[in-house]
Amino acid sequence: MKAISLLIAMFLFTQGLYPQTDSKSMYYKELKGEIKNTLTGLPVNNGFVKLVDYSTTIPTEVKIVPVNHSGVYRMSDFVIHKDKIDNFKILAYPSDMTWDFRLGMSGNGEPINGTNSYITIIPLNQAISSGENTYNLDMKVTWLDKNKKFELVQNYPNPFNPSTSIGFVLPISLNVSLKIYNAMGQEVMVFADNEFYPAGTHSFIFEGTDLPSGLYFYEFKSKFFNDIKKMILIK
Fold first, then answer.
1. Counting beta carbons within 10 angstroms of the beta carbon of residue 14, is it exposed (0 to 12), middle (13 to 18) or buried (19 or more)?
2. What is the pTM of this model?
3. Which has the higher per-residue pLDDT, 179 or 3?
4. Which of the four pLDDT bands, split at 50, 70 and 90, describes residue 220?
5. More confident residue, 228 or 46
6. Do residues 191 and 179 make contact, with C-beta atoms less than 8 angstroms apart?
7. Residues 79/18, Cβ–Cβ less than 8 Å
8. What whole-number distance in Å separates Cα of residue 66 and Cα of residue 8?
9. What structural domains and CATH numbers belong to the chain?
10. What sign has the CA pseudo-torsion 206, 211, 216, 217?
11. Interatomic CA distance for residues 98 and 117, integer angstroms
């Protein structure tokens, strides 16, 4: 048993994951930080933070800790070789995300599995020393409440003649576009073109008096959500 423990310790030592005191290693007694939501400016109250090693073909999870109700995370007692630090990154993600850390690693705010939640990735070398073997790394994230959703509402009535109501629901305030196209893909009306709208429900009346009968499409676009629906004008 002692021999197995010794072998494990030697492996961790060679991988830079076991406490060392030589000049080529950095000992993190504590790494902590506050996570705020860029959409609200307030600390998040859920989620997890991972320390991931990218030096291997498949990224390796080193540590994972929860984010507390004040938006603070804490990691303690880990060692990394100085020449490996550029391979380590801190990943923050909301607790409601179904996520495989081997996917979506660009760190550019790409959505995972089509959800409205986003991973934030920050290199560990951006952590700032705040004392002997203690470091601080604050983060700003773009996480959406899983109970609040974007929605492009189906027009009503449908079919219609000559007018119908089109609407969308926003969980946050942001710039959006809403455009109408005919069956040939030609733009026939613009309700919004990258214009700012506050969170909430918004509706418009589409007037088809001067348009021929047929199939039409209305398309919604934003930074976090895109959708398109069809409607029928019958005269």
1. exposed
2. 0.53
3. 179
4. very high
5. 228
6. yes
7. yes
8. 27
9. 25-141 (2.60.40.1120), 151-233 (2.60.40.1930)
10. negative
11. 10
